[in-house]
Write a structure and sequence with these properties.
single chain; 6-stranded mixed β-sheet; 7-stranded mixed β-sheet; alpha/beta; 850 residues; binds FE2/S2 (inorganic) cluster
Length: 850
């Protein structure tokens, strides 16, 4: 086209408008979606490409600024021509072999920066690696594995060491072992009605799955005393033994997929590679309340194991047979002590897709004829739209303004046109804004604004009492009271929320990265006043969730805009929207009073938590007289679930008080805990960590150096974290080591558990040290990665993981509980090094002591 500028991408020339942002050019015009959007301001590195071999942030460049330069995206990374063509680059091999990713959203950028680093420094040390990758965010916290992958890539490039397992694998290999749900624009595999809303006898199993045997586990009768997120499962086995199991759980990077496949394979006696798992597709999968609360192993794992165990006992399908077996009750399950497959480490599937850019995340999906939608957002939470002058965008071609179902937004053929139009509308909108506090007024505001609580299991007030805490405190030999606080923090998954909605003959499909596809289906149906069975929600590969991607908002937005526009619509939130239109981990104010008898035994204990929630408020210590209370408050900012919920706040307060008491009575903090712990499993983890770090009670203090330890028990997982810190110039706190000990019953996949413990420890480190939302008059003032600090490569110390396997106990989850002892351990270490007791999270102001 006249006026286009020619650029060369991966060796191929293309003519594009010169003003097009380079990121949009490679993704939207050339279909090279390995370059990701993460921030739009040059602060995360997800959009990295190579310009003449050097890393560049494509979100900060335009097409005309790169004319004449050789642009390489992850799709163009090759070791060389000739016989090497089509093979993985050694850096890709190393990242795959080290399993240096969880969700994989940051991986293409990491690999390209590493490639450039190794070209100029073939043997970088850790400091050089940290410096080169300082610009790249991995929100899953895989930094340690990424560092290991860089070293391994250096060895491979030098011709040292064995070739990595994925060497030679062809780029574009399917995203392994997943039963791919339909993608936009691809063939639509759709049952007549969602199977979970249809009786088993009426489901069109075999039209979708082909001949074979289907085994359906009948749901148990609900027991009012118990609670589960998943009560049934089904699986299909072909006559030649290919198994497809179905669960409503989703995998947003945590790799519950591999462990669930392992459990099915174990019970069926099948090889793992013959077991596929369909996840998070509401037309095909059994109802599931959501992937939260570390319930994948206990709930989905439980019903999948039972279904597979039954499948082993019924006759196999013969050729051409179509048979459904409905089973109920408790089959004999395999003994974890004699597992042949489960209990051994298995890497996640799709490593090649992750390192080549072939993995298609929600934000990468496109649909023929699709337009791009952007919503009008209020300036502060709770503001009401008073007026909107649509004339502000009149006369723009290929732009539609839509006001419907309580939403206002635009759709446009081009994402830049949509962004321009919404900016013009935003300037023309009038809002009524409520009075709201600022962050330095928050603690008083929460105390002064109690509420009835929100919906859900964790929303309402909670109170429990045993004995008389008041009397016990009165008679205690030592009594201590303190108030602890935690800031609002953001999940900040590297992939912002995205959804693609398409209507087809009155039926809607929404592809979106939600952790709760079935509740989202119900909420979309409700918002659009359509029958639930006409709505399908599919969860493709997603760039992280961390408990923050529950809400249905973006799915409703895409569905409303698509219906009104009469065409498929994609909505992808900006980083600013992710901070301001998403939800935050609740801030907390916690009052604790505790007493100790003359012999060092905990006596009275009271714990009041305001706003954050009740999880983790219970205590693992023997306290005969106690009072625990959660009091909801009217949060000025939108808040909801977050990885580990309130357990991080409550555990920070309790473990900090335990440390304070131990120091006050002059007893070693580990000895004090062991003396008072009521849980033998947690005591075992504490002893294991103490031994691992060589803890010496009464050791001589080293000036400026501190070691702290803290415990936690939540969701049937036991965690102990030990932290070592050093105080540097200008009172900077440097965490030099973290050790997390964890016990979650019978370990199904040690690789995934270890990876989750590492990632959770890193994420908790951020919240402990510096993450905090700031706000003024209700408006968030740091809604960007340039102002909201998350852990980066150079921040993160070595993280050691000590796992205790208990094959005699049920399996619990590992995604959340490993977070909850990090902050109190660092706080205790700071106290040991400085004598300064910090009772607020984050513990530092941008890394420095307050
Ligand atoms: S640096 Fe470009 S998207 Fe974050
Ligand atoms: S693996 Fe790095 S952001 Fe998820």
């Amino acid at each position: 086209m006249a006026g286009d500028v020619t650029i060369t991408v991966n060796g191929t020339s293309a003519g594009l408008p010169g003003s097009t942002p380079l990121l949009s050019a490679v993704r939207d015009r050339l279909g090279l979606t390995g370059a990701k959007s993460g921030c739009g301001e040059g602060a995360c590195g997800a959009c990295t490409v190579l310009l003449n071999g050097e890393p560049a942030r494509s979100c900060q460049l335009t097409v005309d600024s790169v004319a004449g330069q050789a642009i390489t995206t992850i799709e163009g990374l090759r070791p060389g021509g000739g016989a090497e063509a089509g093979r993985l680059h050694p850096v890709q091999q190393a990242f795959a072999a080290e399993s240096a990713a969880q969700c994989g959203y940051c991986t293409p950028g990491m690999i390209l920066v590493t490639t450039a680093l190794l070209a100029r420094d073939p043997r970088p040390g850790d400091a050089a690696i940290d410096s080169a990758l300082a610009s790249q965010i991995c929100r899953c916290g895989s930094y340690q594995r990424i560092r290991a992958a860089v070293h391994r890539a250096a060895e491979l490039l030098a011709g040292e060491g064995p070739a990595a397992p994925d060497a030679g694998a062809a780029a574009g290999e399917p995203d392994g072992d997943r039963w791919g749900p339909p993608v936009p624009g691809g063939p639509q595999v759709r049952p007549r009605r969602p199977w979970d809303l249809t009786g088993p006898a009426d489901r069109d199993w075999f039209d979708i799955l082909g001949d074979g045997l289907v085994v359906v586990l009948e749901p148990d009768q609900p027991d009012p005393g118990t609670w589960t997120t998943a009560s049934t499962a089904w699986l299909h086995v072909t006559e030649d033994g290919l198994v497809t199991a179905f669960t409503g759980k989703v995998d947003v990077g945590q790799d519950n997929r591999t462990a669930l496949r392992m459990l099915v394979a174990e019970e069926l006696g099948a090889p793992l590679h013959r077991v596929r798992l369909a996840m998070g597709d509401t037309d095909l999968c059994p109802f599931d309340m959501g992937t939260f609360g570390s319930r994948s192993m206990p709930d989905a794992g439980g019903v999948l194991r039972r279904t597979a165990a039954y499948a082993r006992t019924v006759p196999s399908a013969r050729a051409g047979e179509r048979r459904v077996e409905r089973v109920a009750g408790e089959p004999a399950l395999s003994d974890p002590a004699s597992w042949r497959l489960a209990g051994r480490p298995h890497l996640p599937p799709g490593a090649v897709a992750a390192v080549t850019g072939a993995r298609r995340f929600v934000s990468d999906l496109r649909q023929p004829g699709m337009w791009h939608g952007v919503l009008l957002r209020p300036p502060v939470p709770g503001a009401a739209l008073r007026s909107l002058d649509q004339a502000a965008v009149a006369g723009r071609p290929d732009v539609l303004v839509i006001q419907a179902a309580g939403l206002a937004g635009v759709v446009a053929a081009d994402p830049a046109a949509a962004a321009d139009a919404i900016a013009a509308l935003q300037a023309a909108a009038q809002w009524d804004t409520p009075a709201a506090p600022s962050h330095d007024e928050l603690a008083d505001f929460l105390r002064e604004h109690p509420s009835a609580g929100g919906p859900g299991r964790w929303g309402g007030p909670h109170e429990e009492q045993q004995g008389s805490a008041a009397s016990a405190l009165e008679s205690a030999a030592v009594r201590r009271e303190a108030t602890y606080t935690t800031a609002y923090i953001a999940p900040a998954a590297l992939e912002t929320r995205a959804a693609v909605a398409a209507w087809d003959d009155g039926r809607l499909t929404v592809w979106t990265g939600t952790q709760t596809p079935f509740p989202v289906r119900a909420q979309v149906a409700d918002a659009l006043a359509v029958p639930e069975h006409d709505v399908r929600v599919i969860v493709p590969a997603t760039g992280g969730g961390f408990g923050g991607k529950h809400a249905s908002g973006i799915a409703i937005e895409a569905a409303v805009l698509a219906r009104e526009a009469g065409r498929p619509v994609r909505v992808a939130w900006s980083r600013r929207e992710e901070f301001t239109a998403g939800t935050l981990r609740p801030a907390a104010v916690m009052d604790i009073a505790a007493g100790v008898t003359a012999d060092g035994t905990l006596s009275g204990w009271t714990h009041l938590t305001i706003n954050a929630g009740a999880p983790g408020i219970g205590t693992p210590y023997l306290t005969a007289d106690r009072r625990l209370e959660f009091r909801p408050a009217a949060s000025p900012l939108p808040q909801a679930s977050y990885r580990a919920l309130a357990a991080t706040a409550n555990n920070f307060a309790r473990e900090s008080m335990i440390d304070e008491l131990a120091h006050e009575i002059g007893v070693d903090p580990i000895e004090f805990r062991l003396r008072n712990l009521a849980d033998d499993r947690l005591a075992a983890v504490l002893r294991a960590v103490a031994e691992h770090i060589g803890w010496e009670p009464g050791r001589d203090p080293v000036p400026g150096v501190g070691v702290g330890v803290a415990c936690g028990l939540e969701k049937d997982g036991r965690v102990v974290t030990a932290a070592q810190i050093v105080i540097e110039r200008a009172r900077l706190v440097r965490v030099t080591g973290l050790v997390t000990g964890y016990e979650c019953g019978a370990i199904v996949n040690p690789h995934a558990v270890r990876s989750q413990v590492e990632g959770a420890t890193v994420m908790a480190f951020g919240g402990a040290m510096f993450e905090a939302i700031t706000f003024s008059g209700g408006a968030i003032t740091n809604a960007a990665f340039s102002s909201y600090r998350v852990p980066r490569m150079a921040d993160v110390p070595p993280v050691e993981v000590v796992l205790l396997d208990r094959p005699d106990l049920p399996s619990a989850g590992a995604g959340e509980t490993p977070m909850i002892a990090v902050a109190p351990a660092i706080a205790a270490a700071i106290f040991e090094a400085t004598g300064q007791r910090i009772r607020s999270l984050p513990l530092t102001t941008d890394g420095a002591l307050p």
